Amino acid sequence: MHALGEGPADADEETPPQTEVFARGEVAQIIAPPGSARIIEEANPELKGRLGFFPIPGKTADRPGSVFTGGSDLVIPESTRHRDAAIEVIEAPAGEKWQTELARTMSYVPNKTTLAHVIGGTESTAAMAAGAAEGRATPKSGRWAQVEAQNPIKPYMTAVLTGDDPGEAARTASTAITSFLDE
Length: 183
Description:
Largest sheet: none
Structural class: mainly alpha
Strand content: under 5%
Distance between the termini: 35 Å
């Protein structure tokens, strides 16, 4: 794919910011969270109301692809002296009230499929929610932060997009991720 464009091989979604590139009309589509549409429309008001949204396609037309369902991992240290208060702090943003508010005001996808109805007619968030229903979360590991810090996914994507063998690039990324989690 990279051979079809003129961008630098070492670029990613933030170098240069993909919302700016899109707003200038230099690319036709990007993979981004729903809130990116607002940033694009602010940078290029002519695009307001003209953007379309769809979940990442799956192997068949009737089912979106499996995507990463990110977010913050909220934990309570086992040794805490204020366990009940800590649970209340975590339950608040994860609860229906805050998930509804975040979905409506910040275009976030709620943390439960049973809250999908709160998105209403927001096309961008609805598309992301369809993908999230097929999504996968990160492993439950205290070492996951190391994976994010080293980010072997970006070199994997760059390798595939610049013509390397996808299977070999995936094995390299998988080996790196596994080594960070097993340390």
